[in-house]
Amino acid sequence: MTDTLNSTDATASVLDRPAEEIVADLTLEEKASLTSGADFWTTKPIERVGLPAIMLTDGPHGVRKQREGSDHLGIGDSVPATCFPPAVALGSSFDPGLLERVGIALGEESLAEGVGVLLGPGINIKRSPLCGRNFEYLSEDPLVSGVLGSALVRGLQSQGVGASLKHFAANNQESDRMRVSADIDPRPLREIYLRGFQRVVEDAQPWTVMCSYNRLNGVYTSEDPWLLSSVLRDEWGFEGLVVSDWGAVNERVTGLAAGLDLEMPSSEGRTDAELVAAVQSRALDERLLDTAARRNVELVQKAVQGARADASYDIDAHHALAREVAGASIVLLKNDDAVLPLTPGPTGVGTAVAVIGELARTPRYQGAGSSLINPTRLDNALDEIRAIASDDVPFAAGYGSEGETSDELTAEAVAAASNAETVLLFLGVPAAQESEGFDRDDIELPAAQLALAEAVVAANPRTVVVLSNGGVVRLSGLAEQVPAIVEGWLLGQAGGGAIADVLYGVVNPSARLAETIPVRLADSPAFLDFPGEASHVRYGEGLFVGYRWYDARELEVSYPFGHGLSYTTFAYTDASVTADASGLTVTVAVTNTGDRDGAEVVQVYTSLPGSTVVRAPRELKGFAKVALAAGASREVEVHVRREDLAYWDIRVDRWLVEGGSYTVEVGASSRDIRSTVSIDVDGDPAGVPLTMLSSIGEVLAHPVAGPIVMQAFSSGDGGVTGSLMADPSMFKMMASFPIGRLASFPGMPVDREQVEQLLAMANAQG
Ligand code: BGC
After folding, report:
1. What spacing in Å lies between the alpha carbon of 271 and ligand 1's midpoint?
2. Is the CB of 136 under 6 A from ligand 1?
3. Per residue in 144-156, is it b (16+ CB within 10 Å) or e — as a string?
4. Does ligand 1 lie within 6 Å of residue 323's CB atom?
5. pLDDT at site 1
């Protein structure tokens, strides 16, 4: 492996000169070589001009710096690093402040390992619960992904370490990921799949963006000038470098011309030579290569500036942070009759608790593939429960580490359950079913575990289910049998302690579902269009992703987006909303009405009744996590940015805020709305010119032409239009008629020429 920042003396000279000047000193071959890696994880140094190599490595929830035998599939060993909770958990925290702290800690560890860029966060939308990599993504909602993704990037980069926002874009499945074309209409593409990326780029300027493997509407994202240059740079103002996903380059020359600045890993000089040949034959403008080379130099300069040879980090403090974050990410789905929290100490009869399930002893705490971290230490829930319980805590595995079961294991579990007041039953998705590189076949818990659950519940109905899973699992059936369910996701190396904290009320749960748990897979939005065929996947559900779909279809769900219980309760009063040029300000008083301190996630959804475009019944537009002591009350303010109210208008290819009276819902989940208010919002000028093909309805809605046409049509001479206007159903029918066609009809109060003049005047004025 090439020497990187901490091992070379990163020469000051690279910082002394602007990147352009350094590039101007390079030969054509040097410039080409700079735009691809030296090996798996490092860029190429050019000693002649004092340019060191830097290391880019995974990511995203820990530092995966490989020692030897480099690979990007999680096979080779890596140096120990704190395994923070993966994105599936972080997303549920709904807490940007916490993610920023995780980013800072990741930055510290990166610096200590001499890593210049950490490959994350991954913010792809969870389109289907089957995506094998959902554990590595934050949410089904672009606002949650964008806000939390920005926080992570900010934290990381505050330490002088670059982020790599990935996978850009529309990498929403693992099946055929290196070739599949995600075929997406413009509105869902902009409003769902690109929106989170846009927010992170605009708010946090990641040093790098990683293009995805897949194609988007037929074009490899690694060579899509629209995506990598027009949208990312010209529209969003991205200033950093675009790196390929590992092995995502299809045609290097096409990619570079499109805006791909760095190919990773090394192609051992083959594609560098292609670039040189393309410049020499004038197939590639050398200035494009200069630009890519400059961005590489700039990235190295940032990393050199951020590097600290003496960097180190506090392993214990990071483990403690990992525990805190995991505790804030556990979602209490159900808690009938306040079964939880448990009280430590013996109960007198039998044991207070029995722990059942191998996952309590052998935790599943992260997913497989490129994000696999070698943890600095590893807690398990069983030991941590025993540490808090102050009582004997019997354990029965129930199933083996490979998921195998037997009559003997079941009998042991039933015996332990029968003798306990409360059973803590650990269930989850086996590691072999969830990984980068392939999707899941279903969302079922293993049949053997469900059978075990049935036997355990029959022996002791007071059973709390604790889940370990990266993607959602079907809970219908099981949820009706047990009084409490703790969604423990994959919680990183300190997850075991965090689970014990939540079970015993050391931590009051405050996380929320960043994705819906459907009643069954067949209800999910992409069910009929996933994972596609013949290397195409059509996003047929359009805008209706996640809760947008379940709400529009009025489908029952097991647990809705935004849901999560607490050991206390919160009341909402006096919601109000105001509007100004920056957007909406929603204010609501929230009171902790219980007897425990806790935190509430106040969620703000909007909709526009009577909108002229297709919309979901509600869309999350803002949220705030607020800590409140028992009995305390606080006025919470949530700001909704005006640009977040916009939809993508396909007539003019830009964002537009439609004017009208917006419904603003304030709630504790997407299906627990506590207060509804409305507010008038001024629309953006649509800028859609009127033509002879504009409908009467569109013309009537136009501020200049509308009143004139209305006047002409209604002028009561008893003519054709007069009677048409008087009949509401005829009026409705007329509304869709192109004005040019109508003008040709006999008996019309205006002729075509007059209409043309009117339209020209209207277009000129408004
Ligand atoms: C993954 C990326 C990762 C890269 C490097 C790829 O297979 O898709 O997320 O950063 O490998 O390991």
Report:
1. 20
2. no
3. bbbbbbbbbbbbb
4. no
5. 42
State yes or no: is 245 an active-site residue.
yes
pLDDT bucket at 701, cuts 50 / 70 / 90: confident
State how far the Cα of 356 lies from the Cα of 453, in Å rounded to an integer: 10
- The residue behind tokens 């035998």 is 69
Reported as a single tens digit per residue, the pLDDT across 597-609 is 999 999 999 999 9
Whole-number Å distance, alpha carbon 355 to ligand 1 midpoint, is 37
pTM: 0.95
Determine the residue of 119, 177, 214, 244 to mutate for testing ligand 1's pocket, defined as the one with the most ligand atoms within 8 A of the Cβ atom: 119
CA of 396 to the centre of ligand 1 (A): 38
pLDDT in tens, 149-196: 999 999 999 999 999 999 999 999 999 999 999 999 999 999 999 999
Give 726 or 135, the one with higher predicted confidence: 135
SS3 533: strand
- C-alpha separations of 134 from 413, 463, 534, 621 in Å: 31, 28, 23, 22
Contacts of 429 (CB under 8 A, 6+ apart): 364, 440, 445, 446, 468, 469, 470, 471, 473
Asked if pLDDT for residue 720 goes beyond 70, the answer is no
For the record, the structure tokens of 716 come out as 């009561």
Pairing mode, if any, of strands 598-607 and 331-335?
unpaired
In this prediction, residue 7 carries a pLDDT of 42
Question: Could you report the per-residue pLDDT of 142-151, keeping only the tens digit for each?
Answer: 999 999 999 9
Q: Coil, strand, or helix at residue 695?
A: strand
Q: Could you give the C-alpha distances from 184 to 209, 217, 218, 260, 527, in angstroms and in order?
A: 21, 6, 10, 22, 16
Ligand 1 closest atom vs CA 264:
5
Report d(CA 563, CA 570) in Å as an integer.
13
* Structure-token pair, residue 560: 């809705």
- Cα distances (angstroms) measured from residue 713 to each of 151, 716, 720, 751, 755: 56, 8, 9, 12, 12
600 C-beta closer than 6 A to ligand 1: no
**Which of 40, 42, 61, 72 has the most ligand 1 atoms within 8 A of CB, as the residue to mutate?**
72
Residues 6+ apart with CB under 8 A from 248: 178, 211, 212, 213, 220, 221, 222
Of 245, 439, 501, 551, the catalytic one is 245
DSSP letter for 595, please. S
Position 8 confidence tier, pLDDT thresholds 50, 70, 90: very low
Give 466's strand partners. 426, 486
Note whether 664 and 704 are within 8 A (CB): no
For residue 719, the model assigns a pLDDT of: 60
* Tokens (6 digits) for 357: 């399930």
Helix (H, G, I), strand (E, B) or coil at 600: strand
Whether 205 and 238 have beta carbons less than 8 Å apart is answered as yes
Left if phi > 0, otherwise alpha if psi is -120 to 50, otherwise beta: which for 87?
A: alpha
Alpha helices in 620-735 (DSSP H): 696-701, 705-714, 720-726, 728-735
Orientation angle between helical segments 96-112 and 142-158, nearest 10 degrees: 40
To the nearest whole number, what is the mean pLDDT of the chain? 95
Atom of ligand 1 at shortest range from CA of 58: 10
